[in-house]
Design brief:
The complex is a heterodimer of chains A (263) and B (375). Chain A has 263 residues and is α/β, with parallel strands linked by helices. Chain A is built from eight helices and ten strands. Chain B is built from 13 helices and eight strands. Classes of the chains: A alpha/beta (263), B alpha/beta (375).
């Protein structure tokens, strides 16, 4: 019987899981994180397992790697590996030419420099501040009274950029309310917000060195406006992976699980 | 993840002035607080003086201190001022500072202004290690010796100093031997526990701890040690007096086998050579051995020192922990990272506050660092 390998990424905002069989992705799942990380892990793994068509229980997975902030809480996990390593391996699995990753999750931002073999050469993380993370974008979209998906596309309609100076999520909200009341076009303000976040990512990425190919992972990599802003500050293309960027950490965990058993 | 201490010393770190300090006071000792490794401990150990390294364990914010010191002053100095304003150090008989950095100088200023301690002394400190600088520092120590004699009526003469140096050397020799056990493949003591002991010794009257340390040392000789670790690490940085910080690092498989911190084994436990003029010997020792980034033109010797220790203790990687807004380490750490990487030594830089926070983030960074080394 062919073995199944799993990766479970328990993040602050979402839980993600990926299951591999014969080196191919056979199932994946994303759910909103519950308060209890263990519950998140159970639910998201059960969701993915139900999609495999081959196994019925998480226990049937030959090797499971937990990752993300709740990596210690993944039931049935054979081991846990940091999300930094998992994003590196996951992105490299998708595209072997990736050398720089900017991972923007729900509550943190990471820049990762990747070795030729997909392992981590160097990394940098944001500090305790939520500026520029998924939470920041959630707060901003609430200020604009639109869904996060609509907000992420809003900068694409901008004619010019209204600079937003505040990096703090709280102060940025105040500044944006003030700009809206001054009748600045929402799309231009949104462009300013995304540009500010992109600059912050760029600063982080420079600490590890920006080498092509560059990609974005994490939930915020689905933000088209941010992707565009990042390409502008980097002066280079940001590679869109063929796989859901939000699942790259879980994918890396599953790949590492598979490699454990290949040895 | 923190765990229950097994050393038996943890109870000495819960309070800024522990029960042994109270005991020393009851026995007639005069307690002198100090905050920097450049303060020559033997000079404030003579004739019933008891040196205690100042800590602010459990500090949970510095609202009062922030009123007087800018929030871009390091959190160690702000925490000490906060505790001083809260009255935690009221039992001290005096303070001795060195002008080692601007932040500690502001602590001294604010302490004088706000609390007016009975004895509050600042030693000037040259920024170079040279013959004239040692002579200058020697003169500074003479002035401190005079002030101590005048205020406390203590004997700071050569024999008293020789005796104090011998006692400290004898005490530190035991700690050094414990520290050197960490060179083994299966060290009998974790980095966390070693740090707990060093911090407890700095926070307590040493004469009341010596028997306990000796017994602990003997017990370690019978300990088989542990090979349950993924990577041997060295910790480099400034003021670190909370063993739980190291516990977090070790919870993801690192074992801190060597350190170069203000309260660590290097250079704080080095043997003091005592010549014909003990005060001069102290000036030479403390100026030359303390190895702080505040010193000019000493980067090369500092990096060689760190690399030498790393090799001696066979470390896999080095973690540089710097306190936010620390001018000296903030500048030096960038250069250190580059210099260590140039020599293919894996290095991780962690910025932190004085009190432990963001354990999850520390864990993620250290785990990724260990994984990046292929461990």
């Amino acid at each position: 019987m062919t073995a199944y390998f799993g990766g479970c990424d328990v993040g602050s905002t979402t839980g993600k899981s990926v299951i591999l069989k014969d080196g191919e992705i056979v199932a994946d799942a994303i759910i909103k994180s519950r308060i209890d990380p263990e519950e998140t892990a159970r639910l998201v793994m059960a969701d993915a397992v139900s999609k495999t068509g081959g196994i019925d229980r998480v226990e049937d997975i030959a090797y499971l790697v937990g990752t993300g902030y709740g990596r210690n809480e993944v039931p049935f996990a054979n081991e846990n590996i940091s999300e930094i390593t998992c994003h590196s391996v996951g992105a490299h699995f998708c595209d072997r030419k990736i050398r720089t990753i900017i991972d923007i999750g729900g509550q943190d931002v990471k820049a990762i420099s990747v070795r030729d073999d997909g392992s981590v050469l160097e990394f940098a993380m944001n500090d305790k501040c939520a500026a520029g993370t998924g939470k920041f974008f959630e707060a901003m979209s609430r200020t604009f009274d639109m869904s996060i998906e609509d907000f992420s596309r809003l900068p694409l309609k901008a004619n010019r950029l209204v600079p937003v100076t505040a990096q703090c999520s709280v102060f940025a909200e105040t500044e944006v309310v003030s700009l809206i009341s001054r009748k600045k076009p929402p799309a231009d303000i949104a462009a300013g917000i995304h540009a500010a976040v992109a600059k912050r990512c760029y600063t982080l990425a420079r600490r590890v060195g920006v080498r092509p190919k560059v990609t974005m992972t994490g939930g915020c990599a689905k933000n088209a406006g941010l992707m565009q802003a990042l390409e502008k500050v980097l002066h280079s293309e940001v590679t869109r992976l063929d796989y859901d960027p939000q699942l790259v950490g879980a994918l890396g965990a599953a790949v590492l699980a598979m490699r454990k058993c290949d040895r | 993840m923190s765990r229950v201490s097994e050393t038996g010393f943890s109870g000495l770190l819960d309070l800024p002035l522990n029960r042994l300090v109270d005991k020393a006071r009851d026995e007639g000792g005069r307690i002198i607080g100090y905050t920097c490794s450049y303060v020559p401990e033997p000079l404030i150990s003579v004739d019933g003086l008891v040196p205690i390294r100042m800590r602010a364990p459990g500090v949970s914010g510095t609202p009062l201190a922030d009123t007087y010191m800018s929030s871009v002053i390091c959190s160690y100095t702000r925490s000490i001022l906060e505790f001083a304003l809260d009255g935690f150090y009221n039992e001290l008989d005096g303070w001795v500072f060195t002008a080692s950095c601007d932040h500690l100088r502001r602590l001294y200023d604010n302490l004088s202004y706000l609390e007016n301690p009975p004895f509050n002394y600042m030693i000037d400190l040259p920024h170079k290690i040279s013959e004239p600088a040692i002579s200058w520092f020697h003169e500074e120590l003479k002035l401190l010796a005079g002030a101590l004699s005048a205020d406390f009526g203590v004997d700071t003469g050569p024999d008293a100093l020789r005796n104090a140096i011998a006692k400290l050397n004898s005490f530190n020799a035991i700690l050094r031997e414990i520290g050197e056990m960490r060179k083994e493949d299966t060290p009998p003591i974790s980095g966390r526990d070693f740090h707990e002991i060093v911090a407890a010794c700095a926070s307590s009257p040493k004469y009341l701890l010596k028997d306990k340390i000796c017994k602990y040392h003997e017990s370690l000789k019978r300990n088989d040690g542990t090979d349950d670790y993924r990577a041997r690490l060295m910790l480099v940085g400034s003021q670190l007096d909370d063993p739980e910080y190291i516990s977090v690092i070790e919870s993801v498989g690192g074992l801190v086998v060597a350190d170069r911190c203000c309260l660590g084994s290097f250079p704080g436990l080095a043997h003091i050579e005592c010549g014909t003029d003990p005060l001069r010997s102290l000036a030479e020792h403390y100026l030359a051995k303390t190895s702080c980034p505040r010193m000019m033109e000493e980067f090369d010797s500092r990096i060689e020192n760190i690399i030498g220790i790393a090799r001696e203790y066979r470390v896999d990687g080095i973690i540089i922990e710097t306190m936010k807004f620390c001018d000296c380490w903030g500048v030096d750490s960038g250069l250190l990272v580059s210099a260590l990487r140039d020599r293919n030594i894996p290095v991780l830089r962690l910025e932190r506050e004085y009190s432990l926070s963001g354990e999850g983030q520390i864990r993620t960074r250290v785990q990724a660092f260990i994984e990046s080394m292929g461990k």
